[in-house]
Amino acid sequence: MRFIVIYLIGVIFGTGIVLSGMANPAKVINFFDVAGSWDPSLAFVMGGALIVTAIGYRLVFGRARPIWEGRFNLPTARNLDARLLGGSAVFGVGWGISGFCPGGALPALGTGKPEVFIFVAAMLAGIFGARYLQSLSRPGPKVTT
Amino acid sequence: MYETAFTPWASLGGGVLIGLAAVLLMLVLGRVMGATGILAGVFAPASTYDFSWRAALLLGMVTGPAVYWLATGAMPEVIVPASTPMLILGGLIVGVGVTYGSGCTSGHGVCGMARLSPRSIAATLTFMATTAVTVYVVRHVIGG
């Protein structure tokens, strides 16, 4: 039962992603191409998602705890460090080259397009390569994302 | 260069669904809907339960195009302007970046920004800027 509900939440997310255009690299790249074939659609994606999430989170955080867990499991780090900003800067370069971000690419796998599988495989290699490097430089507790 | 149609209503509707999914996940599991964290966690789960909910969520995401097809009669458009080597390079860079940056467009850009997290706001502004610069360089400097 729980997993059916969680599956359906994934369906809502995936359907939203493909409907919005976030799963289409041509559209994503055009959003950033103000100097060329600009397509401002993605501003509406971010706007719609942010308004709903900001209001919805406010309502949910009025509860003592989530329905199936003992507590909210939220990121707690507060500091703006070089790792956060450098990593994000690097991510943007990859997003600009490929037109895929992780949340856009995962639902796009469902279209069966070979390009999406190639991208996701390369992205997984990047994720686990980076995790390996992190484990070398910081022995001990694992980095959670 | 690929022209794409301006789709304010579809994009707004899609954004609302993305937000709805993020809110529902927070309501039931108390977790942020970040594609990076959910995906990476499925390969290194803390428990069988941890693996199961992540796998269920990912399976649901992949079902999105089928739902779109059922509703509209057409598969969603996925046009990849990048060549295969550039796509692989981009994928590697994205994987490294989201790991060091602790998140991506969904985790930082939607969930973190909605919580007014200073880290997520800084991360989002940073990757939006470098994405824009990269697109400009690829399209108008190299591709010019």
SS class of chain A: mainly alpha
Quote the distance from N terminus to C terminus of chain B: 10 Å
The largest chain-to-chain contact, stated as pair and per-chain residue counts, equals:
A-B, 118 and 117 residues
Query: On the 0-100 scale, what is the average pLDDT of chain A?
Result: 94
Give average pLDDT of chain B, whole number: 96
Number of strands of chain B: 0
Relative helix content of chain B: over 70%
How many distinct helices of chain B? 6
Low-confidence stretches of chain A: none
Question: What is the succession of H and E elements of chain B?
Answer: HHHHHH
Topology, please?
The complex is a heterodimer of chains A (about 140) and B (about 140).
Chain A: H1 2-20, H2 25-32, H3 41-60, H4 82-98, H5 102-108, H6 114-137
Chain B: H1 8-29, H2 35-43, H3 48-72, H4 84-100, H5 105-114, H6 118-142
In short:
The complex is a heterodimer of chains A (145) and B (144). With 145 residues, chain A is mainly α.
Tell me what the structure shows.
With 145 residues, chain A is an all-alpha fold. In chain A, 66% of the residues lie in helices and 0% in strands. The longest helix of chain A has 24 residues, at 114-137. Chain A is globular and about 50 Å long. The mean pLDDT of chain A is 94. Chain B is mostly helical and 144 residues long. Chain B contains 6 helices and no strands. Chains A and B meet through helix 1, helix 2, helix 3, helix 4 and helix 5 of A and helix 1, helix 2, helix 3, helix 4 and helix 5 of B.
Search tags:
heterodimer; A: 145 residues; mainly alpha; globular; B: 144 residues
